[in-house]
């Protein structure tokens, strides 16, 4: 694997454009756009303050830079470098800012989640949406970008509003039967909306696009509930990961549990292959071979590691988290379906894996940890 | 008359001396014959007086009384006095005996009553013992039941405790979650209050607004439309269209899947029919009732089903599905029965060959291998295997013999070495030369190392000498010419020594 030289960036703001041609990074208050292949700087923009969040528009023509402290959002155009746009939220403050799927509207969530302001880049219209809910995943756009689901809370009750992204027309507004709605997610086909309760109650509600309640699923009571949710790309399955270290898969026809997967610390399944990374550090040389020592110093940085396959059963080292703290580091925190619907990757427990993604070809998984990047490639045997 | 007076006296004594107790215990105790003496005629009569007297005297003598006779001229005459004395003695004896008897009777009564008492108490105690044993058993049983109860209760208690512990854990985690949420909300509330205060006190109000150079066109290039009632209904219709499309797609997929499954089922059914019918058609001649029915039924049902299947697209799906699944089930059951029959037939055939062979000859032979034939085949194959093995074994033996036939030693050695002899000789010579060369090299190396060591030593010495010489020279440079002369001498001496040193190592070489 080859690596380029190191580029500076701040706040982990480094994103590739959706069409894959450009790379944008933020360094303090500057926005740098490079070409992906040559890594040459194509554009350089200067913002008014340190950039807190940066996002590409869906058509890769605009970049949004949000500065939360100042309550400002600046939009830059790639085609016209001198085009500028500045959105000032004023005294109401800014907590988060994002693009709409069509790349022409910006949704700003004000401080204290007082309202969501929809700014349009096409016309002078401004829309306001009151009482959005501050939760794990309160806003979700459907895959085709036509509809937006927003979780709201008023009068101690949870509601979901469905908007048409075309003109921000409120299509449906209905109450949900949850104690504390934690998140909403559209299915990839855009016809079913999954809404789940906070971890104090295990409750998954499935609504149709027109607001009808299709089904409710609750695996157990009282113990901590849902931690992570993922739809399969074909919308046939819904995977629910919970704090009891199990993944339950629901099928889209009956919305009943199809199967559940456990995460035992001891791996005994004979079909499982466990790869264990063994680090090999180079030996520090002795004193009299002084010339060699200099050469060795440079190679101390690249630690050789190899993977060995230990025999089953394998005991995975588990760090017992503190159960007294809120949001304990137990349970399934990341689920990802492969693109061809064949595989499911889950992360259980307190492992330092921050994100888990499948490659679009469906045969490799990228795991991003705190200091490490792991790429797992699965080679399938050709059937004769 | 003496006899009657005896009688009267006896009667008197009998009546007076009969103890009262005897009336009670007459049954138990054998009485002494104190009965009323009935008739003297039994013992003594007028004829046998002398014999009676003799007898009485003998008895009295035996009892220790003096003789009641005294001899007078050989005639025994009754001595009345002694007789009366004897009678008195007898009466005394009798009285004493009676007294003793009375005492004994009393004693006996007492003892019997004691015994009776004892028996009563014994039986009472036995009853009591029984009762107490029963009581004991009952108490034991109750104790056992109570122990079982306590064990069950302990178990329940343990379970309850575990559940309580679990619930407590759940409560604790929920409580920590609630606390966390509460704190978060409080913090936000605090921030809100601060902000509100700030806004109220803050004079300048920052305006909210957007400053853009020029508006950009929509991503899809279309113009945006006015918001009217039509747009609302359009949105609704779009949404419903999307849903309907999805439903349609889903339904189409399910229909395709359904059709495929139906095809598969139909195939299975046909295959099953195919397996069953040819066998049965050939076997139609022997067992007429069942198989014929079977095939007829089958053919009939097949036709029916084919007809029905053609019409499935017209009929309701549920009906068709039910029919298909029922028919499959029926076929499967028939197949199972058929297999069972085959098994039985196989056994039957094996047991009674001649009769059934004739009947079952044509039908079953081709497809069904009877057990006998099967076994014969097996035997034959086994035999063949054995023969082959033997053959291989003999071949191997022959080969071995061939390879290891005993030659003469010499010829063997010669024959084996003949091809390599020349090369061996050459190799030996080469080895010899190699060895020699090696020895030479060793020697040379040794000498060289020795020379090197010596050279080293000499060099060291030479260096030392040179150093001292130089030192001397420097020292002597400050002195007068006298010293110069000396140094010159010393110089020459050193030069000579050096020469010697340099020349000496040459000699041993």
From TrEMBL, chain A:
GO cellular component, one term: MWP complex
InterPro entries linked to this entry: Centrosome-WD_assoc (IPR052778), WD40/YVTN_repeat-like_dom_sf (IPR015943), WD40_repeat_dom_sf (IPR036322), WD40_rpt (IPR001680)
Domain of life (superkingdom): Eukaryota
SUPFAM superfamilies reported for this sequence: WD40 repeat-like (SSF50978)
Annotated coiled-coil segments of the chain: none
The protein, known as: WD repeat containing, antisense to TP73
Organism: Electrophorus electricus (Electric eel)
């Amino acid at each position: 694997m080859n690596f380029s030289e190191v580029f500076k960036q701040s706040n982990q703001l480094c994103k590739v454009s959706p069409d894959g041609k450009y790379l944008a990074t933020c360094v303090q208050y500057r926005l740098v756009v490079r070409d992906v292949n040559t890594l040459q700087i194509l554009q350089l923009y200067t913002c008014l303050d340190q950039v807190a969040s940066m996002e590409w528009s869906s058509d890769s023509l605009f970049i949004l830079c949000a500065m939360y402290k100042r309550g400002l959002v600046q939009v830059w155009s790639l085609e016209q470098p001198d085009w500028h746009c500045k959105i000032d939220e004023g005294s109401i403050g800014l907590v988060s800012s994002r693009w709409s799927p069509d790349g022409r509207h910006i949704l700003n969530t004000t401080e204290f989640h007082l309202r969501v302001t929809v700014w349009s880049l096409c016309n002078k219209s401004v829309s306001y949406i009151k009482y959005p809910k501050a939760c794990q995943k309160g806003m979700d756009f459907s895959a085709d970008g036509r509809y937006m689901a927003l979780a709201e809370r008023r009068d101690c009750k949870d509601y979901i509003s469905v908007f048409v992204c075309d003109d921000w027309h409120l299509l449906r507004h209905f109450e949900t039967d949850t104690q504390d709605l934690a998140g909403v997610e559209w299915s990839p086909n855009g016809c079913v909306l999954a809404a789940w309760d906070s971890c104090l109650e295990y409750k998954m509600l499935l609504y149709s696009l027109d607001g009808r309640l299709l089904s409710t699923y609750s695996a157990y009571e009282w113990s901590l509930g849902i931690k992570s949710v993922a739809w399969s790309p074909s919308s046939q399955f819904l995977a629910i990961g919970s704090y009891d270290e199990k993944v339950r898969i629901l099928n889209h026809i009956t919305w009943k549990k199809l199967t559940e997967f456990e995460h035992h610390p001891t791996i005994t399944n004979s079909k499982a292959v466990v790869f264990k990374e063994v680090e090999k550090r180079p030996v520090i040389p002795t004193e009299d071979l002084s010339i060699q020592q200099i050469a060795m110093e440079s190679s101390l940085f690249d630690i050789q590691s190899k993977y060995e396959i230990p025999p089953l059963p394998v005991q995975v080292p588990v760090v017992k988290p503190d159960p007294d703290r809120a949001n304990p580091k137990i349970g399934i925190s990341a689920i990802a379906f492969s693109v061809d619907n064949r595989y499911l990757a889950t992360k259980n427990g307190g492992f330092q894996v921050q994100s888990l993604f499948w490659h679009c070809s469906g045969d490799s998984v990228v795991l991003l940890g705190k200091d490490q990047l792991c790429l797992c490639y699965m080679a399938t045997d050709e059937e004769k | 008359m003496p006899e009657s007076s005896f009688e009267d006296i006896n009667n008197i004594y009998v009546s007076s001396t009969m103890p009262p107790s005897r009336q009670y215990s007459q049954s138990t105790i054998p009485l002494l014959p104190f009965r009323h003496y009935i008739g003297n005629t039994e013992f003594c009569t007028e004829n046998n007086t002398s014999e009676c007297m003799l007898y009485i005297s003998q008895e009295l003598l035996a009892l220790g009384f003096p003789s009641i006779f005294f001899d007078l001229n050989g005639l025994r005459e009754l001595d009345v006095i002694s007789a009366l004395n004897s009678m008195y003695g007898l009466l005394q004896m009798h009285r004493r005996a009676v007294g003793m008897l009375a005492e004994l009777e009393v004693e006996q009564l007492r003892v019997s009553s004691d015994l009776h008492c004892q028996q009563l108490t014994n039986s009472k105690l036995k009853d009591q013992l029984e009762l107490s044993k029963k009581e004991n058993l009952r108490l034991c049983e109750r104790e056992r039941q109570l122990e079982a109860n306590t064990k069950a209760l302990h178990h329940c208690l343990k379970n309850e405790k575990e559940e309580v512990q679990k619930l407590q854990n759940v409560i604790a985690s929920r409580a920590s979650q609630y606390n966390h949420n509460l704190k978060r909300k409080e913090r936000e509330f605090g921030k809100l209050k601060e902000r509100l205060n700030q806004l109220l006190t803050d004079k300048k109000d920052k305006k909210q607004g957007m400053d853009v150079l020029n508006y950009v066109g929509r991503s899809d290039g279309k113009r945006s439309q006015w918001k009217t009632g039509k747009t609302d209904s359009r949105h609704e219709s779009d949404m419903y269209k999307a849903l309907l499309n999805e439903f349609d797609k889903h339904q189409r997929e399910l229909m395709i899947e359904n059709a495929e499954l139906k095809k598969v089922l139909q195939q299975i059914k046909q295959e099953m029919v195919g397996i069953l019918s040819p066998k049965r058609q050939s076997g139609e001649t022997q067992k007429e009732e069942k198989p014929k029915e079977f095939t007829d039924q089958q053919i009939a049902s097949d036709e029916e089903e084919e007809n029905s299947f053609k019409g499935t697209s017209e009929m309701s799906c549920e009906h068709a599905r039910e029919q298909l699944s029922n028919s499959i089930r029926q076929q499967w059951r028939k197949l199972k029965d058929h297999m069972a029959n085959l098994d039985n037939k196989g056994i039957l055939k094996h047991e009674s060959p001649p009769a059934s062979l004739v009947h079952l000859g044509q039908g079953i032979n081709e497809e069904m291998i009877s057990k006998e034939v099967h076994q014969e085949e097996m035997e034959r194959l086994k035999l063949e295997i054995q023969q082959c093995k033997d053959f291989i074994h003999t071949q191997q033996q022959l080969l071995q013999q061939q390879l290891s036939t005993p030659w003469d030693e010499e010829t063997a050695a010669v024959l084996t070495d003949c091809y390599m002899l020349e090369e061996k000789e050459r190799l030996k010579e080469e080895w010899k030369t190699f060895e020699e060369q090696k020895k030479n090299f060793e020697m040379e190396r040794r000498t060289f190392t020795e020379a090197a060591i010596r050279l080293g030593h000499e060099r060291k010495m030479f260096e030392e000498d040179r150093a001292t010489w130089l030192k001397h020279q420097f020292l002597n440079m400050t002195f007068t010419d006298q010293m110069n002369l000396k140094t010159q001498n010393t110089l020459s001496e050193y030069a000579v020594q050096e020469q010697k040193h340099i020349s000496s190592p040459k000699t041993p070489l």
